[in-house]
Amino acid sequence: MHRDRGWLVTIGILAITYFAAARLGLTLAVVHPSATPVWPPTGIALASILLLGFRVWPGVFLGAFLANMATAGTVWTSLGIAAGNTLEGLVGAYLVTKYARGVEAFDRPQDIFKFGLLAATLSTTVSATVGVTSLALGGVARWSDFGPIWLTWWLGDAAGALVVAPLLILWSRRPGLRWGREQTLERLVFLLALLAVAWVVFGGLFAFVYATVPFLVWAAFRFGRRDTMTVIALLSVIAIWATLRGLGPFVGATPNDSLLLLQAFMGIMAMVMLPLAAVVTERARAEEDRKQLNAALQRERNMLQEVLARVPTAVVLTWGPEHRIQYANEHAARLIGSSGLLSGRTAGEAFSGALVVVPETLDRVFNMGESVRLEEVAIIAEPSSNPQESHHYTFTLTRVPGPHGGSGGVLVVGVDMTNEVRSRRRLEQELATEHYIAGTLQRTLLPARLPDIAGLPVAAHYAPATPEAVGGDWYDVLVLPDGRVGLAIGDVAGRGVGSAAIMGRLRHALRAYAAEGHGPGELLGLLANLMEADELATVFYLIVDPVTWTAHYASAGHPPALAIEPNGRTRFLEGSGLPLGARFQRGYKEHLAAVEPNTVLILYTDGLIEEPDVGIEEGLRRLEQAATASLRGSWNDLPKRITTLALQGRTPRDDVAILTLQVGVLDPRRLHLRLPAVPSSLPQIRHTFRRWLGQTKTDPDDIFAVLVAVGEACTNVIEHAYGPGDAALEVEGTLVGGQISIAVRDHGAWRTPRDGAHGGRGLHVMQRLMDNVEIQAGTGGTTVRLSRRVRQKVEA
Amino acid sequence: MKTLATVRIAAHGDYSVASLSGEVDLTNAAGIETQLLDSIPNTARALIIDLSKTTYLDSRGVQLLLGVVDRLHTRRQRVYLVVPEESVLRQLLGILSVTSALGVEGTVDAAAERIRSDFPP
Q: Taking CB atoms and an 8 Å cutoff, what residues of chain B touch A679?
């Protein structure tokens, strides 16, 4: 509804405008009241339909009908003429839209010419024909006058179309006055000059019409199409006004002659000046476009240069087979260390200071066309500078094709990799440091030397999976205060410093707990309490009692220990506990196994039994075979022999730690001990003597006497061993035919006990308990010889 | 027996009984001495040191016992030793004249009886 109301308003305004223009035009009618020299309504109708659309035709029709009714016509002639006028507008608008780009018809000269032909010349014949026919049919005009009336009609309409339509369309498309101060001034001067010339030409002073042409050209060149068209219209109005008054250059013999001259002037001026203005405008626009394009190109160029100047990348373009530098950015200039201008110099000259890329490489890229990448080239700005501070660049050399094909030059791009290289080196250094720390830790945490226990030879071996990494495998051997021997082996999950640290914690805690006398099951429970979140470790702990020939053991998720009995039978000592650090702890069950004399116990970590594509059962079976086959040979090398045979030359997937112990029988006639001269050796000496003498069925009172005498001698040595070093204590015993002889040697200077307090008491005790006591002091040390008869129970 | 030696204390009002089981040598003598001295309250008159379960004792151990006797003597507290007749320790204590100097009982009960006669109520 709203749109319809708008349409009705448009129709109304159009009809009124058309009517007014028609009344104006009819005042000029001289040949016939309905045929005028300029018929502005034709232009209005054409412009309206082109600008507002075909649907405004009723406005044209209504305006034309009313205008004719108000003139001389009847209803019928008026209807006919109105129909003709409307049809003329529709046909003209249709043709212009279809062939001359519609309202844009005045942008290009070719469209202006088409407009002139189609709208002004062709479509106006419709109105003239229909209109004059209507007049003749209605009896308003005579058929004999048809020709002149038709011509006048047609020319009037053509003039209207040529002058009024472009004026309306151009103004409607660019309505405002956007003139600067100077432009306004120029137009003012122009207008005054034009009016003066018009007054001269049309006022009758000098009827030379061409005097107006320079002004139209002025307008066409300086003011654009719209204003040019306005000037043409203004001149037309002046010309018509003057001609009607019998003034000016167009006054002919008859009014019709005048009319024709006038119309020719208007039509030709419009058809010449409008295209000229269009061409000028087009050229100006092209010029403007070119300027904008240049500006855009310049901006882009500046941006590119800015980017090339700022990237931390050296960019050099060499040209030709001599590799002349065509372009080098600032970074490249700094890198080369050149102060002068690089462009034009050859790469050989320019790069001679710092040989970054040798000309031979450029030759290769230029000639072969292959791209070359030079990774992390070290660039030392000054030969004296610290290599640590040298910069590293990765260069990419790419061939650039020439303008006529083939090679043109070489593009060298150098990316600064200094930070990457430095951080990588730092990382490598850190890794090396960590490896060093972990390795040192592990070496520190594994016992440097295993205790020498009479009758219980122990040996161990460690085979890392890879030489670099450090695993968390560990083992330990402890002589407990009561003479039993503890064997521990463990594996901490993970590698590196962290694992080594956990391993250290476990080993030392185990030592402390073992010294406090905790049994295996209880001890593993205590160790489990020490584990922190996300730590996981397996441990196997076994205590051998060489007097009762038993072994107590417990396992925290560790592979079972292997026992090989003297008859060659093997058996695995299986534990049942979860690894230390496992979420659900259930405590550790302690197992008891009888250990026959001369049984070999083997503790190990899983690197020995785990191999790709082989199950644990098969791994254990292979270990059994390897261990049994390795027994012959020196005891110290046993773990190594077993490892070699079990792995069959493979590098283990995980580290391997292996610990062996033979639960041996002491020689009944001879005993030899060599121990560090420290207090903790005293219990060990007693336990070994008890085992030895117990084996030989010696009387308990005599055993006690021997123990005390040996204890006094050894205590004296230990108390006087100087320094914390490796002072050693040697005890040798023989037992033949009920006669026991013991030699206690030290390798330092014996001091005769000075203070009568207990030193003298010790010597006194020895002398009273033994049949004979001798002290031999020498340069290499002192030997105390003790002997006595002992009672031995004879087997019944 | 897990550690080298342990001391178990039993208080009986007038006297305390310290049972020393295990072995006493250079490595633990000082610790044992402290434990023995701490085992007797100021109110008690006597300490019975029971060596029935002591498996090893050398001159160092004897020295420690004599040291305890001396220290308690200054506090007017007496020490009674218990060593069973069949104990291997007897020969050593005899050699060092401890048996004759202190008097040694065969059982804790015998020692307690001695205390009752030495300190009539």
A: 25-27
